[in-house]
Description:
The structure is a homodimer.
Chain A: E1 6-7, H1 8-26, E2 31-32, H2 34-41, H3 45-53, E3 65-66, H4 67-77, E4 84-89, H5 93-102, E5 109-116, E6 125-126, E7 129-133, H6 137-143, E8 148-151, H7 155-167, E9 172-175, E10 190-193, H8 196-208, E11 213-214
Parallel strand pairs in A: 4-5, 4-8, 5-7, 8-9, 9-10
Antiparallel strand pairs in A: 2-3, 6-7
Helix pairs in contact in A: 1-4, 2-3
Amino acid sequence: xxxxRISKAVITRMPRYYRYLGELMDEGVERISSxxxxxxxxxxxxxxxxxxxxxxxxxxxxxxxxxxxLHEEIGKILALDTAHNVVIIGIGNIGHALAAYMQPDMQSxxxxxxxxxxxxxxxRQVGALTIRHIDELDAFVKENSVxxxxxxxxxxxxIGVAEKVVSLGIKAIWNFALIDLxxxxxxxxxxxxxxxxxxxxxLSYNSQNxxxxxx
Amino acid sequence: xxxxRISKAVITRMPRYYRYLGELMDEGVERISSxxxxxxxxxxxxxxxxxxxxxxxxxxxxxxxxxxxLHEEIGKILALDTAHNVVIIGIGNIGHALAAYMQPDMQSxxxxxxxxxxxxxxxRQVGALTIRHIDELDAFVKENSVxxxxxxxxxxxxIGVAEKVVSLGIKAIWNFALIDLxxxxxxxxxxxxxxxxxxxxxLSYNSQNxxxxxx
Lengths: 215, 215
């Protein structure tokens, strides 16, 4: 099967569509035109149609989009219809927060193990999970089929831990360490960097330059 | 003074330059060519020169960039040379993590107050700070000159809290609630959204479509 290459910008918008459609479902809206969705999301209607055409379109002329169907289809595109098995490595402030935040209610992301290198943390509970020592990661990943590793380790440890994770066959890393891990790992491994500090710096810039800012 | 409008893409790269230059300083590197920086960052040298030209350039032909000077200048552009006074509203998992994470070592961002609506949380300590009741925000902001509000409140409260914050004269919001606050607030207020869930969904997509991904 020939696979179409989808641009990063489209992929960035898909979770946003998913979110708005979820909200519309909660409001009891059953169908929506691209124009109405466009006004809600501040994206042009033609952009919306183009984005959806990447996946074969989902609308019917003159009818608009069936909200529930579109939500479900975008969920499938985002691979949210299967449960991902997740480990979190590094239970500092952010890792602890993510471990607590991701445990309940998340159908698509199942946190099965949380790890830290600090012996003082090992054995402590975060929600229903007990912090394990990082040395147990190897055996854990072999016993459980882990899809995603969340890396919330200090910057200097990030590459080492990432390489370890990749060597165990995990191909997706949600990286919170302030380092561009995607540039350091073999092809075929996908990394999503969340660089909080850089986001805060952009806010700092924009707060001083509200006129000098264009989208 | 005429102000030049800088594109969002440039602003997104500036904190990344700042980070790499900080690392070079730590390594004792005193100057670097745009070519060497380009290889390190996987950005073309011409892109780097273009980005810096937005701010008048910083290099000398044949010499390259003075690392410390460039780091300092980019720091000024990002308004990191002045301390921002920050409040954090919503001390759940993420808010708590940010309150703990941002307290030490941050020269440019000074967390002065943390707030929650839950009476059971009020009075508890996070690091050196005591959680205050949200009703105290008004008086607090009037007494302290607050620049930035971090919003880590549940989605349904986000607009209300944001409007409150804006009414108190705070013009920069670092928003973690899963809602596009920038579309809901008056012009002149800058919002930086951190939608963690959407980042995780992109990772989910990319983990299934490593071949279909282009930058």
